[in-house]
Input
Amino acid sequence: MSQKVLVISGSDRQGSFNTQLAQQLAAALQAKDQEAEVYDFSDVPLLSQNTEFPAPASIVKLREDIGQAAGLILVSPEYNGSYPARLKNLIDWASRAVVAGDNETPTVLKGKKVGIASVANSTYGKFVRQHLSHLVPYVRANLMEGEGLGIRIPAEAWGSGQLELEAEQQQKVDEFLAAYLAFLQEA
Output
C-alpha cells in the first residue's frame, strides 16, 4: 500500500473554495513529509447497474488508487444541507462489489482511514459533514473521530475568488491535519 493520502474535492466548479481547501490540505501534508495529492476523478461516469460489470477503465483505476492509498480526506461543499451527487457517485462506485454477485469480498473502502472537511458559509459545512459522518462508516470505511474540519468562507473570498485563511482558521486546519496524521498511524 502506498503512503499517499488522496484529498478528494466534492466540487468540480472552477475556482471552488472546497478545491482550494483540498489543495491547501494536500500542500500542508506534503510539507509534513506526508505524500498527498488532490485526486482528479473527473472521468468517473455516473454509476448505473447497466454498465457496472465489467467496470469501465476509469473505475478500475479509481479502485486501484483508493485501494493503494494510505487514507482519504473528503472535502465537500454543502449542497442543500448534504453532499453533492459527484462525491456520492465516487463513494458509490468505490463501495460496490468488483465481481457481480460477490458481496463477500471487501471493497476498497473497507477500513480506509477517512477525514472529512468542508468550507461553506454560515454553517461551516456542518450538515455535509454530518451526512458524510453517517455515510463513511456505512460503506465500512474508518472515519476519524470528531466533527471534521469546518471552515467558514471569508467575506473577502467572494470578491477575490481566493480562499485565504485567517489565523484562527489556519489553526483549525493545522489541528485537523495533526489529528489526521495521528489517525493514519493508529493500528
